[in-house]
Design brief:
Layout: E1 9-14, H1 21-38, E2 43-44, H2 52-64, E3 69-74, H3 80-89, E4 94-99, H4 114-127, E5 139-140, H5 142-162, E6 165-170, H6 185-189, E7 193-197, H7 199-208, H8 215-226, H9 236-253, E8 259-263, H10 270-274, H11 279-287, E9 292-293, H12 298-311, E10 315-322, H13 326-332, E11 344-349, E12 362-365, H14 367-370, E13 379-385, E14 389-398, E15 404-413, E16 423-428, H15 432-441, E17 448-452, H16 457-466, E18 471-474
Parallel strand pairs: 1-2, 1-3, 3-4, 4-5, 6-7, 6-8, 8-9, 13-16, 15-18
Antiparallel strand pairs: 10-11, 10-17, 11-16, 12-13, 14-15, 14-17, 15-16
Length: about 500
């Protein structure tokens, strides 16, 4: 996959001047050795930071080494001001962790008190308004610290990506789609740029690609991908033309940014003017690491990009769409799992899910649109049941008054035929009924949710925390009541 940052991690040890600097240095050496043995390369900064001049020297060294993510390691109590100024002046995500004591036989001259120092470090970070990643239990042995650093990698990768991301959108949200229309101010607060364009600009660019000599090669790729599912061969040339239009637009418009996501238009005038629907092209770009959301869902595209960076895999954007019929649940699910009917729902979209995430796929027309339009202008969807397996459903969203909120819930796609249309699956999330009412409905989330294929809740939750999101919803277990849940219900 492309369009995803590569992390070059560095580590700086810090030392308080009333503790031996050699203690922090020797412990750093052990941590680096453990990390390299388990996970690979890391830049080990030779300067141990004890004061602000050391801090400046160490930052120059990690910058010279090309580091774009950093671990600050409290080998002993640590110097509160210099160690937190590292996060202020380093241009990238920063993690803090501390050394556990090494031996009961060495608690006189060899005690480091980093357990204590981490408290003052966290206070100083908050005092300066700095964001940093602090693990759930941030004190450990060299092997445990190596594991923490590895858990930091996808968080760092995502933050780097967001700080270098441009979202390109086309057209306003469709009428009566206010749910997808959120203020863009919070994009800038998390480091993202946005370029908003007219559908007319896109249509002009599309027409200018009518005789693009690359079209036959893209059509061939599509034919190979679709295989027996190539049920609309007559539309592939136009879809290839549209794909090339988007890819060229990305290269010509990314500007100072390295990474791009797209919030695309797909109705109401798109079909009649372009002559197709863009779902399959959206799925292909998303599979390459360039997320494309439907219905100009800007925060949906942002969420998809986060999932791509975390999972290093294709994601999708689905409607939290419809209930599972009771007779289907009774026949296919009840007694085979521990889920209740209210734990299940169908996640659906017209055809934007990557082919490798479908059990099998077919190119079809968009059934909902075809109810009011000629079928031939609704061709271009990729239909099929979503592959069964673990998933994470999540979204980062700005409220109407520009407050940042998020949710994350782990679950699975069940191995049950949907008997329906579109890119669709039967999802099961523990306590989904309560989560639906007291997070999704209560906090006014739109119907679109991003889906990562695997359990990534821990990492995504930490990404949201790093971004400063204070309201993060999740599917609370039984016995853990939501604030708005009626205790007598």
């Amino acid at each position: 996959m492309k369009n995803i940052p590569e992390v070059k991690l560095g580590i700086i040890a810090v030392s308080r001047n009333c503790f031996p600097m050699t203690l922090s240095e020797s412990r750093r050496i052990k941590v680096v050795k453990s990390y390299k043995e388990k996970y690979g390369e890391i830049y080990e900064c030779p300067t141990v930071v004890e004061n602000e001049l050391h801090m400046k020297k160490a930052l120059a060294e990690v910058k010279e080494a090309g580091c774009n993510a950093l671990v600050v390691y409290l080998g002993n109590f640590g110097p509160e001001t210099p160690e937190t100024l590292i996060a202020k002046y380093f241009d990238g995500p920063v993690m803090y962790m501390a050394a556990a004591e090494e031996s009961g036989d060495n608690l006189l001259g060899g005690r480091g008190d980093a357990y204590c120092g981490m408290l003052n470090c966290s206070y100083n970070l908050k005092l300066r308004g700095l964001h940093a990643y602090i693990p759930e239990y941030p004190v450990g042995t060299p092997a445990e610290c190596a594991d923490m650093m590895n858990e930091f990698l996808p968080i760092a990768r995502t933050v780097i990506g967001l700080n270098n991301l441009k979202i390109i959108s086309f057209g306003p949200r469709p009428q009566d789609f206010m749910a997808c229309n959120a203020p863009i101010k919070q994009l800038y607060n998390v480091g993202v740029e946005i370029e908003e364009n007219s559908e007319l600009d896109l249509f002009e660019a599309f027409n200018n690609h009518a005789k693009d000599e690359r079209i036959p090669d893209v059509v061939k790729e599509m034919e190979e991908e679709l295989g027996a599912g190539n049920k609309k061969p007559e539309i592939l040339s136009k879809l290839a033309q549209y794909e090339l239009t988007l890819l060229d637009w990305v290269e010509e418009h990314k500007g100072s940014r390295e990474f791009v996501a797209i919030a695309g238009k797909c109705w109401p005038a798109f079909q009649t003017q372009f002559g197709f629907v863009p779902c399959y092209v959206n799925s292909r770009l998303t599979a390459q690491g360039i997320p494309v959301s439907c219905e100009v869902d800007i925060y949906g595209a942002l969420s998809e990009f986060i999932g791509t960076c975390v999972s290093l895999d294709a994601v999708t954007l689905l409607d939290i769409n419809n209930t599972v019929p009771a007779d289907m649940f009774d026949a296919e699910i009840k007694g085979k799992t521990n889920y209740t009917l209210r734990d299940t729902f169908m996640g659906f979209h017209c055809g934007n899910t990557a082919s490798k995430k479908l059990v099998s796929c077919e190119m079809k027309y968009q059934m909902i649109m075809a109810r009011s339009l000629p079928v031939e202008v609704t061709n271009g969807t990729l239909e099929g049941d979503i592959i069964p397996g673990d998933i994470t459903f999540f979204r980062l969203q700005s409220t109407a008054d520009a407050q940042l909120r998020a949710y994350v819930a782990e679950g699975e796609v069940l191995d049950v035929r949907t008997k329906s249309f579109g890119a669709i699956g039967i999802f099961a999330i523990p306590e989904m009924g309560r989560f639906y009412r007291h997070v999704l409905v209560e906090k006014n989330y739109p119907h679109h949710g991003a889906v990562a294929f695997g359990h990534f809740g821990k990492t995504i939750f930490e990404v949201f925390k790093y971004l400063g999101v204070e309201d993060i919803g999740f599917n609370q277990p039984k016995g853990m009541m939501y604030k708005t849940e009626n205790p007598y219900a």
